Amino acid sequence: MKCEMCHKAEAETAIRNVVAGEAQELFVCQTCARKAGRHDASSEPQMSAPHGGTDGMPAGPLMGMILDAAFEIVGRAISLSEPACPVCGILRDEYRKRSRLGCPACYTAFAKELDTAVFELHRAAQHVGKTPVTARAAWQRQQLENALSDAVQKQRYEEAIALRDQLKKLETPDGKHGGGA
Amino acid sequence: MLNLDLGVVSKKARDLLADDIAMRCRVRLARNLSDERFPDWATERDRERVYGKVRDALHAEAPDFRVEPVAAFEEQDRDVLCEAHLISKDLLERAAGGGVAYAPDGSTCVMINEEDHLRIQGFSAGLDMQAAWQAADALDTRLERHLNYAWTPKLGYLTACPSNVGTGLRASAMLHLLGLRLIGEIEPVVRGLERMRLLVRGIGGEGSEAAGQIYQISNMDALGVDEQTIVQRVTRISGEVVRQEYNARARLIQESPLVLLDCLARSLSVLQNARLLATSEALEFLSAMRLGASLKLFTRLKVLDVDQLILLMQPGHLQKGMGTSLTSDERDERRSEFLRRKMANVRLKT
Predict the structure, then answer these.
(1) B41 and A180: CB-CB below 8 Å?
(2) Which of B27, B35, B43, B54 would you mutate first to test chain A, the one with the most A CBs within 10 A?
(3) Which residues of chain B neighbour A132 with C-beta distances below 8 Å?
(4) Where are the domains of chain B?
(5) Separation of alpha carbons B305 and A178, rounded Å
(6) How far, in Å, CA of A37 to CA of A96, rounded?
(7) What is the band of A16 on the pLDDT scale with cuts at 50, 70, 90?
(8) pLDDT band, very low/low/confident/very high, at A59 (cuts 50, 70, 90)
(9) Which terminal residue of chain B, N or C, has fewer Cβ atoms less than 10 Å from its own Cβ?
């Protein structure tokens, strides 16, 4: 697997990156991991020791070393072969190696990683184009069904009744949709 | 001395020349079914099932389309479809479930189980990308009545590769830019296009060289911008590149006529005399012939003739034309014979 920052060297470790308040994992080479460490250290001075380090070492490199160690621990903690998509079952490292997702549900299963990748690729995060009528109705129905299931499970019965009524109001599928399971 | 001054030709002549530079355009829509694995991860059975669903939808909405599994075509016919840019090499390499559907007039084509379940493509001549978009969009809207597409309000159409997510649309223009190459300005133009977030590739698609100085220019971003805007932007920028190529040709004629004439004369000479010609080599010389024909510098040779030759001299078309399978060496020999015959009466006007 190639480093997700420089896209050249092989990824050897994982780092955590905070984007819009959300922690995300990136698989990177040692050089980029060190760079990220230095960058984080310089952009967060409040985390540095007040007098330039406790061992007479400059604050920047010290923080870099601390972060390096932390990244390595995170890297070890994440199993690259962990099954990731509950629908198609493709493994985390498989989809990264081939740059092809397994099924549409992978977009939900790998949402954290993909949000960053999608933004990098398109410089945008929100679709603004064509809306397919059938697929939009199916998506709305699925959202209501999920909410209904959650409300029943948590015994919020009034909410469940309202959701059930909303579901009833939605047009019933006519069974013609070939893409269904 | 050349008898053509691009600076004083009429607007109509300029438009005709622009049509020569912009060879054709294509709009492709990537679509997937919601509850199916993407083709690369699907089993043979999964792919066959998807093929059946798409075939049924096409039969219902586009009964005049020919719908066939790729496996049903003879090898030569597969190459012919690929060389005519109706289908990709990628589709040919895929196993069971790969299919192709195309309109009788060739204006619309669907690849089934390529990288995505459906790749709906609209084609048009020159830079009429609106026509290509409208053809692809209309078929997509009709098929959607029968197929439950994978789509979310946030990410739009979900695709096997995140680079296509959103509209799933790629609008591309095929441009012949030999003039810019000859005056040494093609690299800055390509770099400028890439800075504007446009993809620049050869005619073979992803990863291919711009053989014969024929380039494909297409949008990089498919998310966060609507289809009309993408189509208009690629059309506008491609139009600007056409204008630059037009200026390059004018400069060639005015400032370096010998460079131009030398290129054309050498190409004609090789095509009239060679005894062995590989496809890539022939394409380079035909590219020069195309430029000369566009500038009306050859007798008895039009741009459309050269475009036809570019297609017919490729391996699939050549073997189909000969009605037999040929080895690579035999093809090179037959190709040179074929081109010698076609070029026999062509002369350079000087």
Answers:
(1) no
(2) B35
(3) 144, 149, 151, 157
(4) 17-247, 256-343
(5) 44
(6) 23
(7) low
(8) very low
(9) N
Cα–Cα distance, A3 to B92 (Å, whole number): 31
User: pTM score, two decimals?
Assistant: 0.77
DSSP 3-state of B152: strand
Alpha helices in chain B (DSSP H): 11-21, 44-61, 75-83, 89-93, 129-143, 178-182, 186-195, 227-255, 257-273, 279-294, 303-312, 315-322, 328-343
Q: B222 CB near a chain A CB, below 8 Å?
A: yes
What integer is the mean pLDDT of B266-277?
97
The answer to whether the Cβ–Cβ distance between B149 and A179 falls below 8 Å is: yes
**Tell me, what DSSP letter sits at residue A1?**
-
Task: From chain B, pick out residues whose CB is under 8 angstroms from the CB of A180.
Answer: 34-35, 148
**Nearest CB partner across the interface for B34, out of A99, A128, A179:** A179
Contact B34 A129 (CB under 8 A): no
Its ipTM equals 0.85
SS3 category, A26 = strand
Which homologous superfamily does the CATH classification assign to the domain defined by B17-247?
Glutamine synthetase/guanido kinase, catalytic domain (3.30.590.10)
- Provide the pLDDT for residue B12: 55
Choose the closest CB to B154 out of A127, A135, A178. A127
| B83 vs B315: CA distance, rounded Å | 9
For residue B86, report the phi and psi dihedrals to the nearest 5 degrees. Answer: -80, -35
